[in-house]
Write a structure and sequence with these properties.
Layout: H1 8-19, E1 23-25, H2 26-35, H3 39-49, H4 56-67, E2 77-79, H5 85-98, E3 105-109, H6 112-126, H7 133-156, E4 160-164, H8 169-184
Parallel strand pairs: 1-2, 3-4
The protein binds adenosine-5'-diphosphate (ADP).
Adenosine-5'-diphosphate binds near residues 26 and 52.
């Protein structure tokens, strides 16, 4: 978890690779559907372009499907999910149905100004339509209102690991792996 621009996607790929499990990124799945102009993509695009969350029913159904695929049987790393309290409830239910449990929740921590700056640069490189400055600032507000409260939920469950997300990619990955070890022990 972490605010937009904190590097979730980048770290998710590196860590999933190191752990030998698939990274399941709701943002990537939505973007792939937008690109292919599927019904899901057409619906999601309206919300994404405005910097709002895709409705829970839509997101939850998509994640439920994805986690039923064979490659998720031995574990997975979620990137960008859950993002709302109802999504936490759905994830709990999906995990219970599959006889899985959550090992840890990693939160990448970074200052808002650093993040907005990073995202403006990324917008130029990737051409993401949800990356205008106004939308970027709105997404930070949505994160603070909808998703930040989830950190307390997972902290209370003793599953939260907070990691400084500012630094080189490899540096941050090492911090995450080190932090996960302390949680195991
Ligand atoms: P970032 O990491 O920059 O926050 P993502 O790639 O994770 O962006 O997500 C891009 C967009 O996809 C979000 O702004 C939102 O509109 C949508 N999205 C992704 N995950 C979720 C989710 N769990 N619930 C609702 N909307 C989501």
């Amino acid at each position: 978890m972490g605010p937009p621009g904190a590097g979730k996607g980048t770290q998710a790929k590196v860590l999933a690779d190191r752990l030998g499990i698939p990274a399941v990124s709701t943002g990537d799945i939505f973007r792939a559907n937008v690109k292919d102009e599927t019904p899901l993509g057409l619906e999601a695009k309206r919300y994404m372009d405005a910097g709002n969350y895709v409705p829970d029913e839509v997101t939850n159904a998509m994640v439920r499907d994805r986690l039923s695929e064979a490659d998720a049987g031995e574990g997975f790393l979620l990137d960008g999910y859950p993002r709302t309290l109802p999504q936490v409830g759905t994830l709990d239910a999906i995990l219970a149905e599959h006889g899985h449990s959550l090992d840890a929740v990693v939160a990448l921590v970074a200052d808002t100004d650093v993040l907005v700056d990073r995202m403006l640069r990324r917008a130029k490189v990737d051409g993401r339509t949800d990356d205008s400055e106004e939308v970027i600032r709105h997404r930070q507000v949505v994160y603070a209102a909808e998703t930040k409260p989830l950190l307390r939920v997972y902290a209370q469950r003793n599953q939260l690991v907070e990691v400084d997300g500012v630094g080189e990619v490899e540096e941050v990955s090492e911090r995450v792996l080190t932090a996960l070890k302390t949680l195991e022990g």
